[in-house]
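Question (not urgent): is this output format expected?
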Amino acid sequence: MFQFEDIYKITNAEQKKVLKSSSIEFFSLPDDRKIEIDKKLHECINSRTTFLGLSGVQIGEPYCIFLMRKMPENIFIPVTDPTGVSFSGEPFYHKESCYSEVDKFGNLIPYRVKRYPKVSFIMNGETVNLTTNFSEDPQKFSLDAVVFQHEYDHLFGKLISDHGKCVSPFVSQKQFGRNDPCPCGSNKKYKKCCGANTNG
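Got this back:
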């Protein structure tokens, strides 16, 4: 059974290679492999209530598939081999993190990432439209477009650290000097990465 702890992480060099690679078409796989991958994704995503999405590459399956939580219905839907993807609306910056991007202590690293409020794509010959709505009303609140963009990036080996800015100083019981290597694993000095927003 594939669990949360098994998710591929950038702190592991071999797993990072998989995370940074582009995905292969899912549709052409034999049905038994499709079922196996789908089951693996569902096992992992159901092991943690905080998941909004999970892609195939994050579980070591380099295929064009991901699961995303549809709001407000709160159900996971599979997205496979999306085509004709377009983003629209006024772009905004969203604070997000990824279970594949953790520091060497396993802490999530938040990033500020540019996203669009609307997404349109074609899947299985049908056009799908998703929106993001930051409504106070829980029946209207939706992160669907944001979650899609985050997981869609995974299909092309793109991580949030590739185009986002680390937004909060690293918090740990251990203190780091400004010239120490950053504990997030970026290979930058702490002062140029997670410590850039700290005073001193």
